[in-house]
Amino acid sequence: MAKQQDTKKLFEDLSGAGKSIGVLTSGGDAQGMNAAVRAVVRMGIYVGAKVYFIHEGYQGMVDGGDNIEEASWESVSSMLQVGGTVIGSARCKEFRSHEGRLKAAHQLVLRGITNLCVIGGDGSLTGANLFREEWSGLLEELVQQGLIDEEAAQNNSELHIVGMVGSIDNDFCGTDMTIGTDSALHRIIEVVDAIMTTAQSHQRTFVLEVMGRHCGYLALVSALACGADWVLIPEMPPEDGWEEHMCQKLSENRADKKRLNIIIVAEGAIDCHNKPITTNHIKELVVSCLGFDTRVTILGHVQRGGTPSAFDRILASRMGVEAVLALLEASDSTPACVVSLCGNQAVRLPLMECVQMVSAYVSLIFCRSFENNLNTYKLLSYHKADSELPNSSFNVAVLNVGAPAAGMNAAVRSAVRVGIKEGHKMFAVNDGFEGFYNGQIKEITWGDVAGWTGQGGSILGTKRTLPAKHLDKIAEQIRIHNINALLVIGGFEAFECLLQLYEARTSHEDFCIPMCMLPATISNNVPGTDLSIGADTSLNAIVETCDRIKQSASGTKRRVFIIETMGGYCGYLASVGGLAAGADTVYIYEEPFDIRDLQSNVEHLTEKMKTGIQRGLVLRNENSNENFTTDFIYQLYSEEGKGVFDCRKNVLGHMQQGGAPSPFDRNFGTKIAAKAIQWISRKLKESYKDGKVFANTEDTACLLGMRRRTMAFQPVVQLKDETDFAHRIPKEQWWLKLHPLMKILAKYKTSYDVSDSGQLEPVTRGGESGAAG
């Protein structure tokens, strides 16, 4: 343990004293840029550096003057929930010229800014890298022209650059998600969900055009997230004759009693002859070939607007902090880098390697698990006639267990359709294991799950009942329906259920079948996975409510809100929700606190009320402490804050569990369910001997989870040691590393482990890590 302590790298060892950091946003705006700016400013000030806003992107850097302004802690307050970029962005032709960059260098030297944090797309980052390469030459020219002296050139001899990719298109290699992409998907899905209700009423076909320039990511993922009938993207130009195929597919769907069709087109979509495919061309095609009532909707700049999603705020906050750390650690020998997301981990990548891969363009298909999204979409959308499907003669049952979580239905739909594609007969179990032992099991077909992707809750029904007391009845139902494999979708109860069935294999041979569990719970408290289906939707509900609550305080100054979140003993929703909502304090079970901590928090808020930010936000996980209840904390704050601030409390309750699933949860549920069924198919083939399935090894009862950068199947029995069963949480939780970030951004002095930071990595083609992607 002592040895481990030696290798731990704490950011307190890094100092920004004497350093100046400039932060700018450039190119097209993207939701979440403000969260990144806020994180850079606050982290920079926290470590003792001076931080400057560079307004209007590179244009502001060239023009100087009031465009370059020192930032204060309070100047980034209330930015977190605002879309776009409050420091402005502009395309700058002048910076592309040598003279323009010379002017920009002069403006930076005047203020001693030698660290730049650039938030933008590949063009903005390429410009920043060129600026850095020319830096010493530019300084020499400035000296020769008498604009700066030798001492100034010496003091500013090195320029360090760190990039963050802010682009709704997600068209940058080396990162699973760029800042703004998730929010753009939220806008698209909100529109598609709304259109679906009107399209259904009139049996209409809708053709939607989404943004993305030459990248079809938004089109592809939104098609996955809403179950579109057809998608056209520039990366995969359709072959000749695609028009007939598309019309045939639309016609088949109508024959299956589907009352609407959705076709999604990326703005850069082309055919195999490089000819643009327009929405009007598709509309004319559908009307002339099928006679369907067809409408066109072009989403346009709606996709760029609106408030950033919880995911984008967390991503941007993490990246902003990581960018400052990268600047503090930079030397003349380290190349300009981009901070980005790989799986669930912040990584640093060489900037120009990423840009060169984007320039190669064809490699985009392999970036950020693009290929994985494409394959999943193909699996789910093209339904072959029954005669064309393989016949596996296996029966696979799907059920939901535990509390409902948004995205469960998307996972069930995906599992059913991929199972049918694999040749299995799929069975749906209603009401979890209670329905199982009561025989509520029936075959489910391709058409039965149409339109399930965007539905919240659990259509199959879900119960918390564990199987241990009903093993004989469950075994009997497995025999009656000849169930050969089981897919369980749920939270901590689902994990316990799979463990109980695995352990019952010794006494019941009927349970010797492949079994897989998908984590689906808003609490995100399942061992073996960093993320669960439903947690993202819940975070968005929390953040949306916190935004409204904070807004209500803008008229009534000096007010502190105490908000209680769900999660059982797991503090994920409170902690990560607090980071996304800009909370001042978060109380969680995993970080014990006492009356002295409460007193210190009240004092911290009292100091805050003396500044221009006269409101407070405190989040408390429902089971953080049995004595310091939400009521107790509310009364304590009310009493101690008398004359300084008043208090309000809000218990969010089950609104965190409801609502339509977020694009992330739809996509995550869809992809991991498809992967789980393919795993089940492999295990069925491996364990089929002498006319029956017999699977009794550890690796045939698994949980499919996301761990750091990869999706992994882990035997549930091996996860027992990683689990605190009394409190229903994993013994180690990755998000606890994010908890100090929330404190730092709220101006608390704290310790922050940066052992994972600082590793500059080569750019790879991207694997299948991206739950996000």
From TrEMBL:
Binding site for ATP: G28, R91, C92, G121, D122, G123, S124
Protein residues bound to Mg(2+): D122
Protein name, UniProt field: ATP-dependent 6-phosphofructokinase
Compartments it resides in: Cytoplasm
Molecular-function GO terms, alphabetical: 6-phosphofructokinase activity; AMP binding; ATP binding; fructose-6-phosphate binding; identical protein binding; metal ion binding; monosaccharide binding
Superkingdom of the source species: Eukaryota
Keyword Ribosomal protein: no
Binding site for substrate: S167, I168, D169, R204, M211, G212, R213, E267, R295, H301, V302, Q303, R304
Pfam families, A to Z: PFK
EC number(s) recorded for this UniProt protein: 2.7.1.11
Region (N-terminal catalytic PFK domain 1) location: 1-382
Subunit structure, as described in the record: Homo- and heterotetramers.
Annotated catalysed reactions: beta-D-fructose 6-phosphate + ATP = beta-D-fructose 1,6-bisphosphate + ADP + H(+)
Cofactor(s) the protein needs: Mg(2+)
Enzyme class per UniProt: transferase
Cellular component GO terms held in the UniProt record: 6-phosphofructokinase complex; membrane
UniProt-annotated stretches for the region C-terminal regulatory PFK domain 2: 395-773
Pathway annotation: Carbohydrate degradation; glycolysis; D-glyceraldehyde 3-phosphate and glycerone phosphate from D-glucose: step 3/4
